[in-house]
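Subject: for your reference before the review

Hello V.,

The reviewers asked for a structural picture of the protein, and I figured it would be easier to keep everything in one thread rather than splitting it across files. Below is the amino acid sequence we used in the manuscript, unchanged from the supplementary table.
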Amino acid sequence: MSKRTLSKSKRIRSSEQPVQQTVDVSIIIVAWNVKDLLQSCLKSVYEQTKAVEFEVIYVDNGSKDGSVEMVTNEFPEVKIIKNSENKGFIEANNQGIEVARGRYVLLLNSDTIVLDNAIAKSVAFADAHPRTAVVGCRVLNPDKTLQRTCFMYPSALNMFLSAMYLYKMFPKSRFFGREHMTWWDYEDVREVETVCGCFSLVRSEAINQVGLMDKRYFVYGDDPDWCYRFKKNGWKVMFTPQPKIIHYGGQTTNQMADEFKLQLCGSKLTFIRLHRSAIEFAFARLFTSLFFLLRIPYWLVVGLFSRNGKSQPLLTAKAYLKAGFYSIVSWKNLLMNSDILKRNL
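And here is what came back from the structure prediction:
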């Protein structure tokens, strides 16, 4: 297959306008300035994917590190969507979904390594469970330890437990560890509320019914929102331990760590604003503020007594102080795409 560069599609994925499906799975990879990781990810996809027909769609979010040129030269069969600016993880994935031809769409992070035919195993599992919209697999850290990738939906209670670090103090408790499911060993097939988007196999039929990811999230928060909408429409979200990948994690977000931490909490608030009551939303804002304010003393101490990199901990403390204030007074300022939210929330 020859390489094709695609402009952004204007079509909205819907049951009235289906894409002609000629492959089993469309693998969508979004990246921004992570050329080496992207190269390793693509290499693993082509080396480790057998017994299924697939296409790869790469959406570049305005990289300046030669990522597009690398893909063009080394993986000429990949379809490329090149954005002139960073449109965010969610909108970029939607661009890929709009042109995907697969029975399934696999959202695969650029900082992952596919192991032992994981994609074909996930497709086989989904085929055997026809009411499943989303399939998640076992995700490993680079040292092969388990990376927890299944979660409960955001809620005021879960945000309070997170703010107080109770899930870390009592990881075996089904109550205190509820949001992160810290009590579970990921050894069995299980229906869950949310699976992490670093590897999400999604049924195209379900997307046609429910619609694309909500671009108001920009980055983070898309996983629980989409899974919540699938389950409201009668679909299941499942985890299976047999397929495995390695996920390095945070390679893009580390470039703006404090901003992305605020975005993560703001995305949780967005979910509660859209799907929960006004009273729960008010408590969630309070607990988000508590989350940031409780951590300021730690970063101040680290900054004051650190010999190296003293300024960064103090900048983090400053960012958390602003976040604690924003959570109560103007929560949308936690979000990188606050201008979009001001018009749509």
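For the response letter, the relevant points are probably these. The chain has two domains: 4-148+186-247, 253-344. The CA atoms of residues 210 and 230 lie 6 Å apart.

Happy to draft the paragraph if you're swamped.

O.
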